[in-house]
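Sanity check

After download, print the first record. It should look like this:
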Amino acid sequence: MPFNLEASMRTFDGQSSTSYSQTRPMYPAELYYWLSQQVAEPGVVWDCACGTGQASVDLAAYFDRVEASDISESQVTAATPHRKVNYQVFPAEKTTYPDHYFDAVCVAHALHWFDLEAFWLELKRVLKPGGIFVCWGYNWLKIGEAEDRAIADAILPHLEDYWPTQSRLLWNQYRDIEFPFDLMSVPDFELRCHWSVTQTLDFIRTLSASQLRIQEQGDDFLLSAVPIMRSVWSDPTKKQEVCLPFFVKAGRVD
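Expected C-alpha cells:
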C-alpha cells in the first residue's frame, strides 16, 4: 500500500486541532500502567504522532520524561502543555532523537498513516535494546442497535468514497501489518465514553473520511443527521455509553 504523505497532512491539518482535542476519547488509564510495568525503568518514552497530546500527558504520569512529536504543526501548537512533555514537529520516520534513547515508544491510533518501512528503521535506531514498542487504536463506535442503524443509514453512505486506503489497516486492527518483531501477549483493555448526541456527531466529524468529505462538499450530511440521531437517542438531553472497540499491539525490539 503506497504511503501518501500529502494526503495524510491534508487530512489532519484540514480539521480544527482544538475540536480534535476536545472530541477524541481519552485512552484507558490501565493501558499506561501496564506499559510502565513492562520497562526496566520508566525513564523516557516517545509518544510518536502525538496529535494534541492526549496520550502524552497521561504517559507523563508514569514516565520521567515524554518526548512527543507529530508531523502536523497545527496539532502540536494546540497540544496540552505539561512540564514533563517536550513537543516537537517532525515526521515519525525521520527524527533528531539520539540512538538507543527511549525505554518505550508508543503510537496512539496513528500507525496506519506511517511509511512503515522507514518507521521500523527509525524505531530500531531510537529504542533501547529490549525496549518496548506499543501501538493501539479503535476501529469504530458502538452505541445501541437503533443508534448504530441510524449512523449506518444516515452518515456512512456519505463517507463511502472518502475513506483513505490506510483506514483499512485500522479496521482490521493492524492484522495486515508485518511487525519486525514478535508480538507479545497484551491484556484486554476497554475504551468506553459517555457522550451526548452532539459529542458523538462531533467525534464523527473528526474522522478522516468526514474531513475529506467536508473539504469537498461541506458538512450538510452531518447537519441532516442531527434530528435523526436525536430521534433514536434514548434521551436527547442525556449522555449514553459509547463503546469504541479497542486493540493493542506490542513487542520488544532487540
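If your output differs, re-run the checksum step. Summary of this record's structure: The chain has one domain: 5-253.
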